Amino acid sequence: MVPLYVYDEGQCDPKKCTAKKMVRFRLVAPLPTLKMIPHGSIVLNPMAEKAVSREDAKRATNHGVVVLDLSWKNIETFPKMRGDVAQRALPYLLAANPVNWGKPLKLSSAEAISASLYIMGFREEAEKVLSKFSWGEQFIKLNQEPLDRYSSAETSEEVVRIQLDYCQ
Prior knowledge:
five-stranded parallel beta sheet, 5 strands
């Protein structure tokens, strides 16, 4: 089991907030402050230089995965992280949530956590997270081919190379 965490800035509509719903269903542990991010964990950051991949699986199992629930409108102000965490970006995927359906890279917190788990090889855990959302299964269907390809890659570099097939 991969420990999952969320830091929620409270910037989205509480009725649509996937972070709050994941906390309610005890799928993720809430982090009251950024200082509470577990040492050695993987922090999902869309501006990270390295993509999440299978090579992150052991770190995820040992230290967890953290998603920061921030508004996409303020993404350029992504908080500075401590040096002991591994920041990882997700590769090209399409959102299936009702707010950003079909938009590339504009994933909800639930989609981001699920995609990272799937890519690292924790498919059942990824599906469990999405099972709490009416559109959750659609996220996997919409991104089935790239998710399978990304999850077969061993390194971040391979994930980035595969991503180019979808971005051009």
